[in-house]
Amino acid sequence: MKNNSVTIGIIGFGTVGAGTAKILLRKRAELESKLGFPLVLKNIADLDTKRDRGIKLPSGVLINDAKAMLNDPSIDIVVELMGGIHPAKEFILQAIKNGKHVVTANKALLATEGHEIFKAARKSKVDIGFEASVAGSIPIIKVVRESLIGNNIQSIYGIINGTSNYILTKMTDEGIDFGTALKEAQALGYAEADPTFDIEGIDSAHKLTILSSLSFGIPLSFTKIYTEGIMKITPLDIQFASEFGYKIKLLAIAKQADSHIEVRVHPTMLPKDHLIANVNGVFNAIYIEGDAIGSQLYYGKGAGEMPTGSAVVSDIADIARGIKTGLSCRTHGITMTENPELKIKKIDDIRTCYYLRFSALDKPGVLSKISGILGSRDISIKSMIQKGRKVEKAVPVVMMTHEARENDMARALKEINRLSLVSEKTIYLRVEGGEN
Predict the structure, then answer these.
(1) Could you read off the pLDDT of 156-172 as tens digits, one per residue?
(2) Active site residues
């Protein structure tokens, strides 16, 4: 820190890096007015120093050597925006070792390697800012860690992947299939050429790992999060869901009940009038229930150059204030040790309502056999739709159940799928907010 300023270096000059640089440079005077001191962007390190990012940088700012930045004693804050696990992890650890504070938007890195990174930061007494790692412009990290500190958070329901939400919205609004909606999302730049992390729920699970640690005081637990994507969702299931009064969303869910925590990501049916069911397109939302606040919804853009850049700059400003006041090395809020009184519930043990779609031959006795198997597993039917189609050998039989145990449902469906009267594997979805 020199000349009363706080000096910043950015690693990675992609979408988020460019957005962060634009805010720091274009709003430099405004930021200085608000903070009382200047933020100086000294360097941006990226292997590609030629591509146009839509911003003109001062001479000498863009370099291709991240290690030189990490070893520059004049840089106070290193901002890692390159993504991926390696070499991002090594760059962050080196920055921490050199006594530099760190800001990152790298949810995959924090979810899978965060324990080592936060431990190193604590040892070196430096800050780590990671607001941009979850839900883009929505300041959910600050809300959970600071604003809701007086609450026992009971549950979190998050739409925290804009790609999947866009695809499901297009399928719902236009009746198109998954593949068509995915291609459109890719053409518009909402989905990557390889969309695996988004459509299989992995990206949402990375973010839920961070949120659940902050909310419930458990260590980062990515490998314990049940994760299921949206590829099996069809226009037919969306249509039936609507007839029952529901919408289908990819939800990241975390709940606490007594000494157990549920953490899961999967397509979920929600009542149409639920606040989060009406979050569409590429937008994100987090619905939180706490013992003091009741219910709250946080909504906004979950990705993009400027929204995510805004979240990065908020972390930079917070850390810079700490540097100037001597109050840096704030608690990051991530729990490092296991709590023997809190256990993550296995997916087999959760209890929820279910949507079931059977492809059954249109013959007498089919319904009684299916309902008999469900009943033998203590699964009761709440409502049902059966639509006969003369041109088809099999007809869809759709049921909504009352609350049941996942393991019981899995065993029942395994038995039902063996029936000669059932022509295809049963489609099932979990339902939230559906039990009266």
Answers:
(1) 999 999 999 999 999 99
(2) 207
Tokens (6 digits) for 411: 């065993």
Crossing angle of the two packed helices 107-124 and 202-216, in degrees rounded to 10: 40
Residue type, 140: I
Tell me what the mean pLDDT of segment 86-102 comes to: 98
Beta-sheet pairing, 39-45 with 62-63: parallel
Name the burial class of residue 371, with classes exposed (0-12), middle (13-18) and buried (19+) by CB atoms within 10 angstroms of its CB: middle
User: What sections of 102-177 are H helices per DSSP?
Assistant: 107-124, 140-142, 162-174
Domain locations in the chain as residue ranges: 6-136+305-325, 147-301, 348-431
Which H or E run includes 102?
Answer: strand 101-104
Q: What is the CATH code of the structural domain delimited by 6-136+305-325? A: 3.40.50.720
pLDDT-derived band at 329 (thresholds 50, 70, 90) equals low
CATH architecture of 348-431: 2-Layer Sandwich (3.30)
The DSSP-derived string for 261-325 is EEEEEEEEEEETTSGGGG--TTEEEEEEEETTTEEEEEEEE-SSHHHHHHHHHHHHHHHHHHHHH
179-225: per-residue pLDDT in tens? 999 999 999 999 999 999 999 999 999 999 999 999 999 999 999 99
Could you tell me the pTM of the whole model?
A: 0.95
Query: What is the C-alpha separation between 165 and 169, in angstroms, rounded?
Result: 6
**Does 147-301 carry CATH code 3.40.50.2000?**
no
Reported as a pLDDT band with limits 50, 70 and 90, residue 435 is low
343-388 residue pLDDT tens: 999 999 999 999 999 998 878 888 899 999 999 999 999 999 887 6
Of the candidates 192, 302, 231, 268, the one whose C-alpha atom is nearest the C-alpha of residue 430 is: 268
